[in-house]
Amino acid sequence: MKIGAIATLVNHISLRVSVKYKLLEFWISVGHQVLEAVVRSVSEPAISCTRLLQYIQ
């Protein structure tokens, strides 16, 4: 009886930890994609501006 209860508790804890880990993984990947998009949207106009300046010079 006691072993079963301990096994259930361990199983429950590991399940909760894995769910939290998956959520964390998900948020990290989303944040990374958002960050990449922001960097791209900021850097592309900057690159085109420098190209334009080089072209003018």
TrEMBL record:
This is Uncharacterized protein. It comes from Ostreococcus lucimarinus (strain CCE9901).
